[in-house]
Amino acid sequence: MTNRRELLQSGAAVLGAAAGLSPQAARAAWNQAAFEAQSLAAVVKALGGTAAAAESRQVQLQAPEIAENGAVVRVSAASQLPGTTQLAIVVEKNPNALAAVFELPSGTDAHLATNIKMAETSKVYALAKVGDRYYYAAQQVTVTLGGCGN
Q1: Could you tell me which of 55, 42, 53 has the C-alpha nearest to residue 96?
Q2: Which of 32, 37, 61, 74 sits CB 3.0–4.6 Å from 43 for a disulfide?
């Protein structure tokens, strides 16, 4: 009998093959250093940024001021910067700061919405990549019931 992990791995391989990815290609796309980073600066460096991220009014972040449940916090990010190729969500005080990263094909509208987990009250960043530079918007989100690690 197959255990759960083997079943999930084989299912992921089938889905990857259907999408045209080999298991090796799917693993190559995973940026372990970025997801293990503990700060905005470390995330930017791990994602390939060549300088510190700069705050920009052309990057927008929408998040609740108060999240009643840190296990499910709805956020959206957008960039009006021409040539945006990546959007990421970074949560300053999470065990792993990088919550999500999305690659945007050329011609794609740079706007996304997703649910994230937050361990505690923290600053949340929307991070946009243009060329080899990163730009961000930030907002403080107060968590009243814990999510990550609780």
Answers
A1: 42
A2: 37
Q: For the segment 41-67, what is each residue's pLDDT rounded down to a tens digit?
A: 999 999 999 899 999 999 999 999 999
Map out the domains of the chain with their CATH numbers: 1-30 (no CATH), 34-143 (2.60.40.2470)
**Nearest to residue 139, comparing CAs of 120, 124, 128?**
124
User: Pick from 149, 139, 13: which is nearest to 67 by CA?
Assistant: 139
The pTM assigned to this predicted structure is 0.78
- Amino acid letter, residue 143: V
Q: Measured over all CA atoms, what is the biggest interatomic distance in the chain, rounded to whole angstroms?
A: 55
Is residue 145 within 8 Å of residue 73, measured between CB atoms? no
Q: 61 forms bridges with which residues in the sheet? A: 77
53 CB-near residues (< 8 Å, 6+ apart): 40, 41, 44, 125, 127, 133, 134, 135, 136
